[in-house]
Specification:
- By secondary structure, the protein is α+β, with helices and mostly antiparallel strands.
- It contains 3 helices and 7 strands.
- The chain has a 7-stranded antiparallel β-sheet, covered by helices on one side.
- The N and C termini lie far apart (36 Å).
């Protein structure tokens, strides 16, 4: 098993559009399927309620690390932390980096989630497998979101 997940997708949208889909908390929530409580701010915890069927009991939590406009959005979280009765706060977190590169009129979005080697052994393999599958789905979700048009807002999509 690798210590990192890496996914890459070419989106038919300019970097500015993809950046907004990643970093506007309402748009992020629309494609990521989480009802975010407020804007993303570096150094602050972002919290929301997952809306994906079967996971509505999960509170989404991440700490925003970097927001380098139209280039890098990164955060840390506890991977596949879905059990409501488990305290994950003492576990190490993984780092998610969402990098944007212009390619003509398109944007190449690269996702890297790293740090699985530090996740407790009893959770590591399942967290990696579930997040690997989850990120594959989320890359398609953001593709559909930005392909839905220039979209000034995410409401109603």
């Amino acid at each position: 098993m690798s210590d990192r997940i890496e996914k890459r997708i070419e989106l038919k949208a300019p970097v500015s559009r993809v950046w907004r889909a990643l970093t506007d908390y309402r748009e992020f929530g629309a494609w990521f399927r989480v009802n975010m409580s407020g804007p993303f701010e570096p150094g602050k915890e972002a919290i929301g309620q997952i809306t994906h069927p079967g996971y509505e009991h999960v509170t989404w939590r991440a700490v925003v690390q970097k927001m380098e406009p139209e280039r890098l959005f990164s955060f840390t979280w506890h991977p596949y932390a879905i059990e409501p009765d488990v305290d994950y706060s003492t576990e190490p977190q993984t780092l998610i980096e969402l990098r944007l590169e212009p390619k003509g009129e398109c944007t190449v979005l690269t996702l890297i989630e790293s740090g699985f080697d530090s996740i407790p052994a009893h959770r590591r393999a399942e967290a990696f497998r579930m997040n690997d599958n989850g990120w594959a789905q989320q890359m398609e979700n953001i593709r559909r979101h930005v392909d839905a048009g220039s979209g000034e807002t995410a409401h109603g999509r």
